[in-house]
Fold this protein.
Amino acid sequence: MYKGKNRYYKNSKISEARFRRLLRAFALDLTASDAARLTGISTRSVNTIYLKLRWRIAAFCEAQSPYSGEVELDESYFGPKRIRGKRGRGAGGKTILFGAFKRNGHVYTEIVPDAKKKTLLAVIRGRVDLGSVVNTDGWRAYDGLVDVGYEKHFRVHHGANEFASDNRHINGIESFWAFAKLRLSRFKGLPKHTFYLHLKETEFRFNHRRQDIYKQLLQLLRKHPIWVNLLPKTLNNYDFLNLATPIRPNKPEPNSPTAGGRGTELSVTSKVAGSQYP
């Protein structure tokens, strides 16, 4: 049995050297089964570690805003191919995503229940600085941006075949949507409870596409390692994902169901949504 110290995966029986090989496989975007064959770790264990890595990546991504400067806003629809007879935004039960892209910077995404003005404005006000130069398409949900304080709002009207005019465009966020749909399509559909995590992983990969993903993950896990004893069940708010301190398993009460040394699972109301996509 391995008795050394793994700085990246606390309380694990997996050696640090082997974990780093697994982390490199994850950085290369290898499947769990391929990573298992390369590292000698069971596929079940690899899947568990992959899930914990995605939770850690999601926490990191949630901590990156607010955005400022030149920002592009857009919504996109992920889900099954269009169903005949169903038209319009979100037709056919698609999952609606909202995205904010800071030019020459990073993208932030969020699953939203609809693309109505009230919904999108609430996300924008929480994620985009009021002094930003905002670029959107002509969707009517963005009509109220000036009213809530975004004085510099520029639009391109795709319905009128206008896609770019000087600095008015949303090409950056649209490039992310294309990247995300291409990458996620290889999974041939994802369950709702993991869609959010795969989305955030895709966001992380896009934001660090010009960097070494493996080194970025090592740097993140040195500061905020994952733990054997803790795997969140669902996501409602991100308090327990606060990156100010590492995610640590809570000590169970002496008579609690987890007092036998199996650790503590967090249980919060689900915010995770998602659907299959082409």
